[in-house]
Amino acid sequence: MTKQDTALIIIDMQRGMADPKSGRRNNPAAEANIHQLLLAWRAAGRPIVHVRHMSRSPTSVFWPGQAGNEFQENLLPLASEHVVEKNVTDAFVNTGLERWLHVRGIKDLVIVGVSTNMSVEATARSAGNLGFATTVVADACFSFDRLDLHGKAQTAEEVHINALSNLRGEYATIVDTASLLN
């Protein structure tokens, strides 16, 4: 597994991600894989950061005070785990996350969550640019179907793999849950 001071960053695993408005997604096992990683980090006493998206739009499922804004039951933070609230895709922007990590001497990050092409990719890019050794767990993330720039439908699987391909090498190492835990 990873070094003792490696932080697990769990991004936007809120109840709103299961809202039908979000559309069709890939990787139905992502939550189980995230839960498995969360349990391993807790058992090892490693640092864990839960990131919650706090939408600025009252019509969003992530608007504060709505059920969709709450963390998924299986992934609720413990009182000892750090929670970061963000308003944009990147968990480093205006959240104090970078400082929190530096104060604790954390230089290695494992990023999981949703969506691969939005908050996971934005956060991993910043992490890499800020000098953190960054790993993204491919099967502990997921994306949704979306239209490309030309209006052509892209499946969630295509969106997911493209985002991971964008990150691989330049910003992050890409692994799966089993290889990370072994």
Automatic annotation (TrEMBL):
Protein name (database record): Nicotinamidase-related amidase
Domain Isochorismatase-like: 6-178
GO molecular function: hydrolase activity
Gene3D superfamilies per the UniProt record, alphabetical: Isochorismatase-like
InterPro entries in UniProt: Isochorismatase-like_dom, Isochorismatase-like_hydrls, Isochorismatase-like_sf
Alphabetical UniProt keywords: Hydrolase
Keyword Hydrolase belongs to the record: yes
Pfam family, one: Isochorismatase
Lineage: Bacteria, Pseudomonadati, Pseudomonadota, Betaproteobacteria, Burkholderiales
Organism superkingdom: Bacteria
